[in-house]
Design goal:
Number of strands: 4
Number of helices: 15
Strand order of the largest sheet: 1-2
Order of helices and strands: HHHHHHHHEHHHEEHHHHE
Largest sheet: 2 strands, parallel
Helix content: 40-55%
Shape: elongated
Radius of gyration: 28 Å
Strand content: under 5%
Length: about 280
C-alpha cells in the first residue's frame, strides 16, 4: 500500500479520473443501445409486412398435413417422415435411386423398401407415376432416360418438361412459375433453390436441361429497393428484407460482401442471387 502513496498527487488524480471515465463508459454501453435509423416509409412497410408475416405463421401452425399425389422416387426425408415411412425403408429407396434406378409401381416400391402391406395400402393410392411407366419396363425406362436431349430451361414448355424423368405436371409448373417471376434462369443450378428439389433429384435432372441465350433481366437495385420490393423478390422473404434494410440503414450503401453476413445466405445461394441484383 505504501507504493501507491509514493505516486505524485497529480498522477493519482489522473488515474482516478480515468477510472471514473471507464465506469461511466460501461454504464453508457449498458443502458444505451443504438438502433439503426430506418426511413419512415420503410418503417410503415415493415409494420404491414410483419403483421402479414405473423398471420401467415399462425395459419401454418394450425394447418394440417395434407396428403397429395406424389412420385415416390423423389420424396425427401422430411416427406418420408410425414408419410410415416420407416427410416430403414427410406434409406433402402435412396440407395436404390443412387444406382440410377426407379420404382415404377406400388409393387416395385414395396419390393425395394420392404414397407408393410398396411402402409402400402395407405400410400399406393397417392402414388403418381408418369403415364408411360405403366406400360414400359425398367429397361425401357432407362432407355428413355438417356434418349432425352437437353432442352433450354428458358424456352422449355410444360409438355417438354413433363417428358423429363422425375418432372411431373406440378414440378413443371413450379419451374415455369419461377422462370416467370425471375425473368429467366441464368444457370441450371437454380433448380436447387426450388422447394422439394434435393441433391439427388438435381443430379437426375441436370443432364436434361441447359441454358441457351442468357435472359435479359430487370435487376433489383439492392440499395434503392423498398422493403416491399425486396420482399417480393423470389429469393428473399420478409425476414431477409427486414435484415437487409437494417444493415443498409447502418452502412448507407451495401456491397456484395454485406449479403454474405446475412443469416440464411449460403455461398452457393449468394452466387446465384447476385446475378439478379444491382449494387
Amino acid at each position: 500500500m505504501k507504493s501507491i502513496f509514493l505516486i505524485p498527487k497529480l498522477h493519482r488524480r489522473g488515474l482516478g479520473a480515468l477510472f471514473l471515465l471507464l465506469i461511466l463508459l460501461q454504464l453508457c454501453l449498458y443502458f444505451y443501445s443504438p438502433t439503426p435509423s430506418i426511413p419512415v416509409q420503410d418503417n410503415k412497410e415493415l409494420a404491414l409486412l410483419e403483421t402479414a408475416y405473423e398471420k401467415k405463421l399462425a395459419a401454418r401452425k394450425f394447418k394440417k398435413f395434407e396428403l397429395k399425389p406424389f412420385n415416390p422416387n423423389f420424396i425427401s426425408d422430411y416427406k418420408a417422415y410425414q408419410l410415416k415411412i420407416p427410416t430403414a425403408a427410406f434409406e433402402r429407396l435412396q440407395a436404390y435411386r443412387k444406382k440410377g434406378l426407379y420404382v415404377n409401381s406400388a409393387t416395385d416400391f414395396q419390393k425395394v423398401t420392404g414397407v408393410s402391406n398396411e402402409l402400402l395400402q395407405k400410400l399406393s393410392p397417392l402414388f403418381a407415376f408418369p403415364s408411360w411407366t405403366n406400360k414400359k419396363t425398367q429397361t425401357a425406362f432407362q432407355q428413355k432416360r438417356y434418349a432425352v436431349k437437353a432442352i433450354d430451361l428458358n424456352t422449355a414448355t410444360e409438355a417438354q418438361l413433363v417428358e423429363i424423368p422425375g418432372i411431373g405436371v406440378r414440378r413443371a409448373q413450379q419451374i415455369l412459375d419461377q422462370r416467370k417471376k425471375l425473368g429467366g434462369f441464368c444457370t441450371v443450378n437454380q433448380l436447387k433453390l426450388l422447394y422439394g428439389v434435393d441433391e439427388l433429384m438435381f443430379d437426375q435432372l441436370k443432364s436434361y436441361l441447359k441454358i441457351g441465350a442468357k435472359p435479359k433481366l430487370n435487376k433489383l437495385n439492392i440499395n434503392r429497393a423498398s422493403v416491399k420490393e425486396l420482399s417480393a423478390f423470389p429469393y428473399f422473404n420478409y425476414g431477409l428484407a427486414r435484415e437487409i434494410v437494417k444493415i443498409r440503414s447502418r452502412k448507407g450503401t451495401l456491397i456484395i460482401e454485406d449479403l454474405a453476413n446475412v443469416e440464411g445466405f449460403t455461398q452457393e445461394k449468394l452466387t446465384i442471387i447476385v446475378l439478379y441484383l444491382e449494387f
